[in-house]
Amino acid sequence: MSRHTPVMTVMVAAVRKAARGLQRDFGEVENLQVSLKGPGDFVSAADKKAEKILFDELAKARPGYGFLMEEGGKVEGADKSHRWIIDPLDGTTNFLHGIPHFAISVGLERDGQMVAGVIYNPITDEMYIAEKGQGAFLNDRRLRVAVRRELTQCVVGCGTPHIGRPGHEKYISELRGVMLNVSGVRRMGAASLDLAYVAAGRFDAYWEANLQPWDMAAGIVLVREAGGTVSDIDGRDDMLASGGVIVGNEMVHAQLSKVLKAARQAG
Ligand code: IPD
Ligand code: CA
Ligand code: CA
Question: Structure pTM?
């Protein structure tokens, strides 16, 4: 069993390098909160700097692989099988507000399948890694999804649409349905970490709609390798294209899917 195959070594090194800048910049955000201009432009510069480091490191280590990045968009590679899917700073709103819950997320896609993922919170120093067939790990600890069998006993993560985003009415219906059937709902503000938390058994389940591929690419591998079930909102394996995701152990995933469907139908 190798947690650090050559490609995982490359991913972890690139992520650690990019994280050093984010750590420094997060410290600076606290000073900027009190300035009139606020930290907005500074944060978007931090985001771009982190992405550039990831791009440079990964392109150097694996020349020819393609890229899909939140800031830089698509970069075609000579190797049509492989593509890095990158969110250099997931949880931007948290970062901007000095809330220490954000991550770098890097996924590797091979022939349309997610095969490796790294999600790193530089503040808590939690490094989540997974590779297809190799298991999922938090630092050196093997991860398994939680074993609760009843949705009513579960803590369920979610993402709320905010100003400028679609799906508010649908979300309110879904949330109403879920609240009536679970032990707790959490909205933490970084989709990649929500998925990592399910892999780690901290959340029993999680759902969100209208995500981008880079929000969930790495997390999909983590949850699957931790023994969890992953689907889009309609139960299909089309998360990256549809933007929707539901995750949990097999039983809880089925119960949550049912509750969400009924809630949408009820309006
Ligand atoms: C956002 C976070 C958030 C989710 C949003 C994403 P960003 O990513 O993952 O939890 O609810 O849909 O856009 O903008 O912080 O990279
Ligand atoms: Ca981002
Ligand atoms: Ca994101």
Answer: 0.97
